[in-house]
Structures are given as structure tokens and as C-alpha cells.
Amino acid sequence: MATDDGSAILQVEEVAKHFGNVVALEGASMEAKDGEITAIVGDNGAGKSTLIKCVAGVHLPDRGRIVFGGEVVRFSSPEEARRAGIETVYQNLALVDELTIWQNLFLNREIKRGVGPVSFLDRKAMARRSEEMLSRLDIHIPSVHARVRRLSGGQRQAVAISRATGWGSRLIVMDEPTAALGVKESGRVEELILRLREEGHSLLVISHNFDQVLRLSDQIWVMRQGRVVGGRRTSETTGDELVALVTGANRGEPDEEGEA
Amino acid sequence: MSGGTVVRGWVGEAVGRRLRDPGFWAERAAIFALIAVVVVFGILSPNFLTVGNLEAVLLAGAILVVLAVGQTYAVVTAGIDLSLGATPTLASVMVGYVVGREGGTLLACLLAVLVATTFGVLSGLVISKGGITDFIVTLGALSVATGLALLISDGRPVEVFDPFLLTLATGSIGPIAYLMLLALVVAVAGHVLMFHTGFGTHLLATGGDKEAARNMGVNVDRVKVTAYAISGFLAGVAGIMLTARVGSAEPAVNTEFLLNSVASVVLGGVSLFGGRGSVAGPVAGALLLTALLNGLTLLGVSEYWQPVAVGSVVILSAFLTRYQR
Asked: Of B230, B215, B107, B238, whose CA–CA distance to B162 is shortest?
């Protein structure tokens, strides 16, 4: 079971979720420690996305509980999760192609100036702050005034990640951050993820890519058929063991939860 | 001042780069085309470039400018407001109805705007909550508004004698007619709302990528309803302007308002897929269409050719959108 030594920023306990007759999660438990990169691996349909959508407030779990920052939380919308300090970088990145980089970074968090009910956008302040946000993470982009349409896949990912980090968030959830990227761009995004950990951010990352998970993470949780079937410290596991867990080849293993 | 030189050099380079970008020209097609039309007709017809005629063009274009701004708000959400063919008529009939029964100008105008805005709100609600295509909903609204206008007016035009509306139609501040001034105010307010408020950004985001906007917590349904409410409100304003200008309230549907408002928006470089556009573009588009029709009339071209000219210009301009960045 997830230990309660106070260093966990997120604890998921026996969370279940079904959609009609389809059981997406049947009692999944895991935890993420403060300041670590926690990875979730598993096959398609194992329930990874459903699990993080429960954490991010997209889905409300049918059963079980989620403890975030020591408090039991029940988010009924992504906005609530965001206000509590959980930022999610969705697989589709939630960037609007036709808007500029600064407009995307400040989408629904616009800086305004004005008196009373009449307020206008402070475009200059948002552009300036956007430059700061990107340069702090060493992200190189021609101009914050460029439309997102003009960016490469890796640059988009970087913009989406820096938006998630820019708001005093306590946990950043990423769904397949490099799935759509080439080798070189994946490498850049991995560097960015490691830099975030150095800055003290806690990250929860879904990935298909075992090599990447072994390179990046501190803790790995393996999901299969709607359950978390094992947890390992990254330093103490191998790709072969992860494959066995994902496919269910070592079903008879006595300690399914691993140390955490 | 070396700093100034550096800045000037940088600005010059940036301007050069923009001028070589076909997207720069495509986005401003309406403004350049408007200038071209003015120059060409100025050469072809000695009467075109007179102060009196240019004033007439601006005055004739005022109603279309207001409708084009409204249509822009619908189109930028990846929608379209077909009811603009009849809601100005309905608003005009409302004015005639109330004024004809001694209800007073203020009440007449308020009711006209209220009815048209309600049409927009209801269309927006059915589109966003009901999940029905914009095209179908506003097509239905077009028909309903047409029928209501006929019902309220009993199918007959009524003359509207009203000192306020007469002043609105004929008065001016210096050379600028009130109707032009009103159109200018609408255009400026439309621009500020779209590009200098949080709502404007949410509008463009909803039109550009509804899913992304929703993920970021934007209330996309409310944005859609508000966009159509604005379109409806401006249809009401246009209805009042129409009544003032014509001096009567006529239940006849103005299909050319609908076609020309869509044409202005397309000419103005607003993407029909939503998410990008301007207010200045459609305003220039509306003036371009008006100037084109005026010029053709001055040259003695049969008015039967005018729809042909408008349609051709719109289709040509749609090609330019391919070059948008």
C-alpha cells in the first residue's frame, strides 16, 4: 500500500471508474513523491489515461479517494484541480494554433488592467511575462508573438509544459509528452522534464516508452487491465522486468505493490 | 543616437520581411482592394472621387459595416449567422409597429434591439447546448424572423415619421453623417472587444480550437451564445439604421444584407474555419463592396450586373485566404 511518510504529494487509493459497462479502472492505487518524476506505464487500454484524468479533475472517480498535498480531494472539473495546484499537459496539448504563443500561455488567465467591471488586456505585460516564462526554462522560440501554428512539435510541447509550470503548480501531469515527436525533439523535451525536477517540481508522466521512463523517472508504476499491478524504484528495476509486469508474465509475484 | 538608428534599422528590416510575405497581403486584401477600387473608379469616372460621392458611399455602406461586424463575431467562432438576412427587417418592423402606435422612439429602438438580440441568444443556445450546426439553426432563425416580420406588419410597409430617426438619417457632425459615426463606433467597439478583452481572446480560442479552449477552462458555450448575441444586437442596430434611412419599415427580406455581410467577412480575411480574423478587414470589405456597386452605377453598368460583380469579387478573394499564415 502507499506509505504515508509525509513526502507523498499525491496518493491514489483504490480508485475505480467505469463508463457504462466498460470498466476503465478497478481499484488503482499509487503515489507520487514530492520533487520526483513518477511514471505510469502500461499497454493501451490499461487505464493510464483514465487514472490521470481522475487526478486532473476530468473524471470524477466512482470509488476510492485521491489525497493531494495531505488533503482528500474530489475535483469535479479541471479548473478545480488547477486551482488546487495540479496542472495537466494533455496529449493534444490544448494549444490554439491560431493564437500567438503569449495568448496561449495566458489563455483564461489573462492579465488585465482597468477600473471596476471595465478591464482591458495588458498585452505588453503578458508578452513580457511569456518571454520570462520561456527563457527561465531555456526554451528557444523565435518570438512570443508568433502563432503556435508556426511551431514544431517539440516547441509546442515546450510551450504547453512551460504554461503548466508557470502558475505555482505543485504537480504537473503529462500524458505521453513525446509520443508525437522525433528522436531529437524527444531528447529536448526530456531535458526540459529533468530541468523541471531540478527546479523542485513534482511530475507525473504517462509513457509507452520504457527506455524513456528508465532514463527519466524516480518511480515507476505499472498498470494492466485497470489496475496498478506493480511499483518499482527506477534504480532497482530493468526493462525486462517492466515488460514482464506490463504483459502479466510474472503474475505469481508475491509482492505486487513494490516498495514506495 | 545610436540606439535610435539600431531600432530604425531593425524596424526597416522587419517591414521588408513582412512586405515579402504573401500572407501579409492576403490578410489585408480588403484594404488594398478598396484602395485599388477607389483608384480605378477615380480614373474611369470623374464623379467618383468627389467629396459628395465618397460621402454617399460611406453613408450607403454604414448599415453593411454594422452587419459585417456582427457577422464577423459569428464567423470567428467557426459559425455563420444566416439570420442576418431577416433580423434587421424584423427589428425595422418592430420600430414601425411601436412608433405607429405612439409608443415613442426610445421604446421602439429598445424593443427592436431586444428582439434581434433575443434571436441571437436563442440561436447561440440551440447551437451550443443543442449541438446543432450553426448553418441550420440560423437558417431556421432566418425563416422564423421573416415570418414574424410579416405577421407583425401584416405584410405591409408602414411609413415611419419620427424626428429622432429623421435626424439620425440626415444629420451630421461636420462632414460625418450620424449613421457613419454610428458605424464607426460599432467598428471600434467591435475591434476593442475582440482584441483587448479577455472575452475576445476566449472568442478566438473557441473558434480556433474548441477542445483546447475547454481544456483551459474557457466556457465555450457561453462564448458561443455571446457571439451570436452580439451579432443579433448589431442586427437590431442595423434595423434601426435601415428604418431611419428608408423612412419606413418594410417587411421585405434583405437577402443582399446577408450575402454582402458574408462577402465582407470573407473579403476581410476572416477564416471561415474560425479562430482568426479582424474587425478592420470586414469593415474594409463592406466599404469595398459598397464602393464597387457605386462605381459600377456611376459608369452606367446595368444593375443586373452588380450581383455578378459582387459574387466574382468574393470568390476571387477567397483564393487569397490560401496564402494566410
From this structure: B107
Contact B198 A96 (CB under 8 A): no
Cell matching residue A207: 509513457
Apex CA A14: angle with CA A11 and CA A17, to 5°? Answer: 110
Structural domains in chain B?
A: 23-323 (1.10.3470)
| Residue-level pLDDT, tens digit, chain B, 325 residues | 444 455 555 566 667 777 776 667 767 778 888 999 999 999 999 999 998 899 889 999 999 999 999 999 999 999 999 999 999 999 999 999 999 999 999 999 999 999 999 999 999 999 999 999 999 999 999 999 999 999 999 999 999 989 999 999 999 998 889 999 999 999 999 999 999 999 999 999 999 999 999 988 899 999 999 999 999 999 999 999 999 999 999 998 788 899 999 999 999 989 889 999 999 999 999 999 999 999 999 999 998 998 898 888 888 877 776 776 5
CA B306 to chain centre: 19
Q: Which residues of A174-211 are buried (b: 16+ CB within 10 A; e: fewer)?
A: bbbbbeebeeebbebbbebbebbbeeebbbbbbbebbe
Q: How far is B98 from chain A (nearest CA, A)?
A: 33
> From the CA of B117, how many Å to the nearest CA of chain A?
22
Last residue of a domain, one of A168, A202, A228: A168
Domain count for chain A: 2
Residue of A101, A189, A85 whose CA lies nearest to A147: A101
- Total CB pairs under 8 A between chain A and B: 74
Would an 8 Å CB–CB cutoff place A75 in contact with chain B? no
SS3 at position A248: coil
Enclosing domain of residue A159? 94-168
Inter-chain contact B217–A82, Cβ cutoff 8 Å?
Answer: yes
- Across the interface, whether the CB atoms of B201 and A82 are under 8 A apart is answered no
